[in-house]
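quick one: phosphoenolpyruvate bound model?
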Amino acid sequence: MIILMQPEATPFQVDNVLAFVQSKGWQTCLTCSSGQIIIGLQGNGQPIDPFYIEQMPGVADTMAITQRYKLASRAFRPTSTTFRVGGFTVGGMHLTIVAGPCSVESRTQLLEVAHAVKEAGATMLRGGAFKPRTSPYSFQGLGEKGLELLAEAREVTGLPVVTEVMSPRKVALVAIYADVLQIGARNMQNFDLLNAVGEAHKPVLLKRGPSATVEDLLMAAEYILAHGNDRIILCERGIRTFDNKFTRNSFDVNAIPVLKQLSHLPVIADPSHATGVQRYVQPVALAAIAAGADGLMVEVHPYPEQALSDGDQSLTPEEFARLIAAARRMAEAVERGIA
Ligand code: PEP
Ligand code: MN
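yep, here:
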């Protein structure tokens, strides 16, 4: 059960409710979502009559949510979550288009690509400064220098910046520069990191782990929500399956409508990491929009063959502009648009 307090509930009223449910043997978890305090009951306490709780001073409502993810569920919030990043709304009628290089490599590379993706219709700029690489000998990113370059690119293009944070110790640093904190696929269940971004005052782009179920992804989002941050974008980026001979991962198109059904959070698709192959990026991007995705995240590099990471899946700016033109037509077909 969760207990929703009235927005004007006093600390005394909250303490009173906490004391009552704890006296019945329940553990409690306190969250503040859009100014409203929510008390979650955990463990195996004695049964409590919701009607009794609803009569307590300061209580607005109670909800029995059967799913393990509660704050992430549509049962908790039936209307889709939308929020502003820069001048754009995420999760609304218009698709969010995040584009940019896999890694920030240099000032010239980043500024060139930032201008190009903006021109083509991107609404956010991506670029990794701290890179999770399979090999410790691969390019690991420019670190804080990369963050500074992202901030410069935002300054000149006006595009808000999405960049990955890999460690709880780096959240404060990355949050100084980033507009959206990305949690990479391989960190989806780094619970210390999820807790840390839950406490940060920045939206979070949470990527599905390559072997995570849809429910695992929602439980990961629940960690962030339970720490008070409800500005989360879920991202389907492909999973490992028995057949990853011709593509890097398998894009789980089912996950898009399933996540939209189960959760109120916006869902975007990353066809670049899902396929790992430049020529498959556009068809999968279009499939994601047709399936109801709220946006795309696409890797773009001015010279993909020279990229220090993920060149095989990176589009040139011209290819990206063509993708956007096709994405506009697909968005219209499903009664959406691109800003
Ligand atoms: C990325 O977005 O560059 C990235 C590393 O993606 P993922 O975590 O999905 O592999
Ligand atoms: Mn990449």
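The radius of gyration is 21 Å.
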